[in-house]
Amino acid sequence: MTTPLLPRRPLVFASMLVVAAVLGAAAFGPLLAPHDPLAINQNAVNQGSSAEFWLGTDEFGRDLLSRLLVGIRPTVLVAAISTFIAATAGTALGIIGAYSRPIISFFVMRAVDIMLSFPAILLALLAVGFWQSGVTSLSVVIGVIFIPQFARVAQSATLQVIRQEFVEAEHAMGARYLRVVLKAILPNILPPLVVQATLTIAAAILLESGLSFLGLGIVPPEPSWGQMIGIARGYLSQNPMYVAWPSLCLALTVLAINILGDALQDHLDPRLREE
What we know:
10 helices; cell membrane; BP-dependent_transpt_permease; transmembrane; MetI-like_sf
């Protein structure tokens, strides 16, 4: 009997609502925004919350609520695309590292170890410094950075699966390498990979926000949460809520995704299920 994700777990349900709201804002943010997020209003610079501007305005008089609603889209796109890149390439490398000739496995996993030895933010800074900033370049860079994590998870899970009798049965029937991978190995290593994907999405959001915070991410005037936090540092004394709102949104989003990832792990891992 599996552990229910929602009953008796209100925190998980609240996290699902937060993630749903973020996805809704990413999809329909421009339609939900009460003002033009790029419109400059010199008569409403650094204002606090009001009836017209619910969350206040920035240094150019732009509506913060509108910029928050629109600014999540590039972050979600980068997180989703980079996670797909990392999951696809990392899973392939992990399976090769566990289910191929020893010499090939050795070189593949040592390359993964080398990538893991460098801090993610350092690799990202080195990479984006040579590329034009934008969603595409950020997605590729962040995706490559998180490949080793998926490779390690996939390798560990594959090593456990290839010892099972159904894999040996495939070999006994003369199944080819690709068939064994697609029919026997991949379906049985998906649960840990799904959990890793949720954790990677949260990490990718933080990394993209960090790069945008440093001015190496999304190019202004297009907003993103990390970029807004970075710019708002210079206006803390004039409008402290300017930095508070995007920081709060970012923290809640990452926290909600991590909580869902933990709940998903509890649900998919038979060792953590409640009888």
